[in-house]
Amino acid sequence: DTRLVAARTEVADRTLELRKAEADVEQVVNRAKRDQERLTSGEVKAAKDLEALQHELVSLAKRQAELEDTELEAMQRVEDAQSALEQLDAQLVLEGGVTLLFVFLI
Description:
Layout: H1 2-41, H2 47-94
């Protein structure tokens, strides 16, 4: 059934979108950790450089918050797509169709 293929594709696409969002958050978190370590290690001594690093940390925190919002939205889209697939699968079973329900692990 083409509806089932479309629903499975939607779940797969939304799962990929979520994984990208998770990777984006992780990248920003790692960079912020690295910058925080540089700030507290004494490695950076010049006041101008310290100030720039502090501004960078503030910017990264804002970016992380934005990316986490995007990640939550992506999670919701995955859940919605999975729910739609499950509903379609149940409908097809009730209509007498035999189908396999794919469960995508995130």
